[in-house]
Amino acid sequence: MKKKVTMQDIADRLNISKNSVSQALTGKPGVSEETRLLVQRAADELGYTYSNNRNSQRLDEKNGINIALIASDYAFSLKSFFGEIYLSVEKEVRARGWNLFIESIDKDSKDKLILPSLLSNHQIDGILILSHISTDYISKIIDTGIPTVLIDHHSPYLQADAILTNNRFGAFKAVEHLIQLGHQSIAFVGDIEVSPSYQERLEGYMLALKKHGKEPDQALLFTDAGETQEEIYGYVDELPYMPTAWFCVNDGHGFLVQSVLQQKGFKVPEDISICSFDNGQLSQIATPKITTVDIDLNYYGKKAVEQLSWRIKHKDEPIHEILLPTTLIVRESTAVNTVKSI
Predict the structure, then answer these.
(1) Annotated domain spans of the chain
(2) CATH topology of 57-159 equal to that of 167-295?
């Protein structure tokens, strides 16, 4: 009978303590990333089955449906947005009596295409990928053959189901709201290379202008704007004229644009209207509160788990991209334009 591999066997092989092995395999602090990777590789080579995550549950024995939720360190750090989706995923998974395993992907693992070890032991039934990691990395996950659903990300190079925000229509409604308030010059600000969602919001902005017979002004399109006060200051200082309204690709940009303009002496919304996207905390604590596009993050997680459940049972069906609706929340930062020019 083959001897069962233990943590002590891994410790002996690497000449480290058993405690260090335990910390590395359970995702606890106390060991370097280099040691963690060495331990994981040794565990795989020796045939030790483990769950490399923050959960206490082991995968030594199959017990029900096991789901992996995978995201980059960066995505997990955005607690006000992706944190809410994660919590809704966890709630829905638990309600179904399934087991959830969390994997945070650091830059080194992403660049070297090192997949979480729990994906190689054939105990995971389905995978949820939260936001973007990299196209190559997500492709490698999909290539494992494990049913996979992407959350808030898609790409023509990724053949997997995706749960998405209807960014185009959400942005369309927001910009149309500004147009209906009488705004003729509306700036766009946000880095469209960061996410397909931001590119789609630019497309919604363009659709609204076209629908109302307006040509976009290239001088007002800041499509590579980083989310920093310094960059926003730079763009504002370079403007040939001040638009009477700004559509911002997310609440972070909206908060910064509003702050910079106020510091320069402009009044919101008396002089300039601001509209953003996501209905996050920043739009709610700003003074005045910012008109924004709301996304039902709780429904996001619920729908993702629901789709993954369907995909597990229908592995050969064509992929689905599901667009979730948005709601425009009108607050104090937008008002009827009474300014002819600034």
Answers:
(1) 1-48, 57-159, 167-295
(2) yes
Rounded to whole angstroms, the Cα distance separating 221 from 188 reads 5
**Rg of the chain on CA atoms, in Å:** 24
For residues 220 and 202, the answer to whether their CB atoms sit within 8 Å is no
Mean pLDDT on 187-198 = 94
Strands 326-329 and 292-295: antiparallel
Instruction: Provide the CATH number for the domain formed by 1-48 in this structure.
Output: 1.10.260.40
CATH topology of domain 167-295: Rossmann fold (3.40.50)
pLDDT tens digits for 136-190? 999 999 999 999 999 999 999 999 999 999 999 999 999 999 999 999 999 999 9
| Digit-coded pLDDT (tens) for 84-106 | 888 899 999 989 999 999 899 99
What would the CATH number be for the domain defined by 57-159? Answer: 3.40.50.2300
The answer to whether 71 and 104 have CB atoms below 8 angstroms apart is yes
Sheet containing strand 273-275, edge to edge, reads 221-222, 186-189, 245-248, 273-275
